[in-house]
Amino acid sequence: xxxxxxxxxxxxxxxxxxxxxxxxxxxxxxxxxxxxxxxxxxxxxxxxxxxxxxxxxxxxxxxxxxxxxxxxxxxxxxxxxxxxxxxxxxxxxxxxxxxxxxxxxxxxxxxxxxxxxxxxxxxxxxxxxxxxxxxxxxxxxxxxxxxxxxxxxxxxxxxxxxxxxxxxxxxxxxxxxxxxxxxxxxxxxxxxxxxxxxxxxxxxxxxxxxxxxxxxxxxxxxxxxxxxxxxxxxxxxxxxxxxxxxxxxxxxxxxxxxxxxxxxxxxxxxxxxxxxxxxxxxxxxxxxxxxxxxxxxxxxxxxxxxxxxxxxxxxxxxxxxxxxxxxxxxxxxxxxxxxxxxxxxxxxxxx
Length: 351
Hints:
Number of helices: 14
Strand content: 15-25%
Oligomer: single chain
Helix content: 25-40%
Radius of gyration: 20 Å
Shape: globular
Order of helices and strands: EEEHEEHEHEHHEHEHEHEHEHEHEHHEH
């Protein structure tokens, strides 16, 4: 089968790899129909995730059709359409019982990280019964891919951890796909204002269309001063960091109001200064989280009801044969205006 393989920092290749096989009774093998590229994949390629070894098939998002199931799998059968969660969960360990699936002792974020992932024609899914979700009849397949990771990540790590509430003020630093996912899902909680901050005017225009009350280009103006002016000098109740670089986290420190929350989503590969000399007395909470996908069933119903349309995040489409072009477009988002890209893996199978 064809698969996108990590070859070490800065290197990747589309290769022929052996088909995955069932390894435990709880496994399923899924024929990937649609997948995508995540900012975390770019972090792996930069060398920011040293736990990912060269030779790994990348990707942790997608949907497909079950090809085979292990003897212990009773809720799925070959031919079922399924949503692949970016987090694998045994459902039994201490962390899973606390809904912290990202810390599952035999799962967590393993796809495209510690085991081969979804940017391939086929993928093996451990703990299939608690790591796959049935796709409703008639559901948009591309929308389902957005439920693998980006929507629950923006919601859980940003909105829920950030304690967004009715009437609150929210600043989201980073108008990339994950920041926009936080913007879409934050509106479920009716905050008074959402302020989007980025250095890309095109992405800020998208943020306005998605519901941001204000869009600030931090490369053109002092974002902290502008937010201070918009909030009467108070700052925001929730500052969501959705980039993963020191400067954007430090900006969140400058934006948050007394009693507020800094909710980190970004994947950080470098040390960040924490200015306790200014924050120690301000009743600030700082939250970190790896998505648990505990909210995936709720978000699935919300998307099906039409309350959220995650396909708005999709800007480019490729086949698996074109995945190198897809990575190029996604990595040069400022030039290509790419948000999320959809990769049709089934096209490679039928070729």
